[in-house]
Design brief:
The complex is a heterodimer of chains A (about 100) and B (about 110).
Chain A: E1 5-7, E2 10-14, E3 19-24, E4 32-37, E5 44-49, E6 55-58, E7 61-65, E8 71-76, E9 85-91, E10 94-95, E11 99-104
Parallel strand pairs in A: 2-11
Antiparallel strand pairs in A: 1-3, 3-8, 4-5, 4-9, 6-7, 7-8, 9-10, 9-11
Chain B: E1 4-7, E2 10-13, E3 19-25, E4 31-37, E5 43-49, E6 56-57, E7 68-72, E8 75-80, E9 89-96, E10 103-105, E11 109-113
């Protein structure tokens, strides 16, 4: 099992604020995935990053893969209530510890 | 992508009994997985369901407690045997496509053991 630590564990912010979620490991990954999960549903894939240093943008979400392929970050600009959910990074079948985000209108 | 359904969506069971959860995919896939999740927490991999052979279990999970079947490339079952309240959790089925690391998840089965 490859351990993926996410921080922060919980995040509660006002609508319009920016935030960053971190996913860190001591292991090197060939790829990392980010998922979002809403209550009562399974996780939904947001993005896969493959190349060290890669940056991917998905509307207001920006994902970065560390140069050494051991860490990744998710930055949300101008958060909206619809962004509320559990954000999970994963290295294949092993998932990070999770970040629960609440965006307050 | 893949569309995955799970049955039942939720159940309340008595301790000592067993529950079989079904996972159906709308296309043939090579890799199927079973996870457990406490509400609001991360996912823990139980096992990889292999078609035509025995499932591969993660540390801390054993076949006697969580027997898995994979009769074909679109279907799998997970049985939670001799249940105790500690087995109360969300059980999720997922499949992997050819894209590296990408998984698609079912909606989950919410199990409460009394």
């Amino acid at each position: 099992t490859q351990l993926l630590e996410q921080s922060p564990q919980f995040l509660s912010i006002q609508e319009g604020e920016n935030l960053t979620v971190y996913c860190n490991s001591s292991s090197v990954f060939s790829s990392l995935q980010w998922y979002r999960q809403e209550p009562g549903e399974g996780p939904v894939l947001l993005v896969t990053v493959v190349t060290g240093g890669e940056v991917k943008k998905l509307k207001r979400l920006t994902f970065q893969f560390g140069d050494a392929r051991k860490d990744s970050s998710l930055h949300i600009t101008a958060a909206q209530p619809g962004d509320t959910g559990l954000y999970l990074c994963a290295g294949g079948v092993y998932f990070g510890t999770g970040t629960s985000l609440t965006v307050i209108p | 992508s893949a569309v995955i359904s799970q049955k039942p969506s939720r159940d309340i069971c008595q301790r000592g009994t067993s529950l079989t959860i079904q996972c159906q995919v709308d296309s043939q896939v090579t890799m199927m997985f079973w996870y457990r999740q406490q509400p609001g927490q991360s996912l823990t991999l139980i096992a990889t369901a292999n078609q035509g052979s025995e499932a591969t279990y993660e540390s801390g999970f054993v076949i006697d407690k969580f027997p898995i079947s994979r009769p074909n490339l679109t279907f799998s079952t997970l049985t939670v045997s001799n249940m105790s309240p500690e087995d109360s959790s969300i059980y999720l089925c997922s499949v992997s496509t050819t894209t590296v690391g990408t998984q698609y998840f079912g909606p989950g089965t919410r199990l409460l053991v009394l």
